[in-house]
Amino acid sequence: MESITQLFDSLWRDYSQRLCPSAVQIQQLLTEDSALLNDHIALRSFGLPKCGLAVIAAPFIALGYQPQAKYHFSAKKLYAESFIHSNPLLPKVFISELQLAGCSAELQQMIRTLLDQVDDAYFRQPDFVYSGRPWQLDFATYQFLAAESEYAAWVAAHGFGANHFTVSINQLEQFANLEEVNHLLRHNQFVINQSGGEIKGNAEVMLEQSATMADVVGVSFRDGIHKISGGFYEFAKRYPQTNGELYSGFVTASANKIFESTHR
């Protein structure tokens, strides 16, 4: 079993090279005297025993992470859970899965056909969470899936890896709020997710979030390379609770809009 540092380093390497190359530039824009603090990462999967949320969570739980809260996104047919470590400097982990029972029979069959290409043993290796797509896929299948569920198409095309990392704004001295961060990003030609407003949440719910729109990346399909939405970078500001500790959970309404950072 690799260490927590190795796991997140591997997730970052895959994310910044394969899914969101612009993350490196954003890091350079925001880094001050010390390395950026990563508030959380998010991972996606299909809600099947072979590779579902519990399977994605296993490598993190083996390294000391514990379940924190559960979230439902009925319109998107998604279920998610967050996980937290006793070390407050370690990123929170947000894992979601597509609830296939709520999808069409055609979509369900396509997903099962993709997974049938992969041995169960593959998902017992902890490094699968940053190993990309283990099945073959043609672009027509991707387009069919996208017409019903952008989320399903994203996972089918990219496989496994962090769809976003998140900069903790609380640590920054140069930027007091998300408005300033978003202004800098726009000045450097980054497009901000506008779904539900540039900033999702507020001080009342103790969490504010914003995100770039996903990078467009080239992905290899059976019939050639096509450019589609990859990963994005998120930014979060947390507010103190009555006990003085920063709120550590997530806000369903805000997370629902953050998912749309991969919509193009």
TrEMBL record:
Its EC number is 1.13.11.93. Keywords: Dioxygenase, Iron, Oxidoreductase. Pfam families: HGLS. Gene3D superfamilies: 3.10.180.50. The keyword Cytoplasm does not apply. SMART domains: DUF1338. Signal peptide: none annotated. Its cofactor is Fe(2+). One of its GO terms (molecular function) is dioxygenase activity. The keyword DNA repair does not apply. Belongs to the 2-oxoadipate dioxygenase/decarboxylase family. This is 2-oxoadipate dioxygenase/decarboxylase. It comes from Photobacterium iliopiscarium.
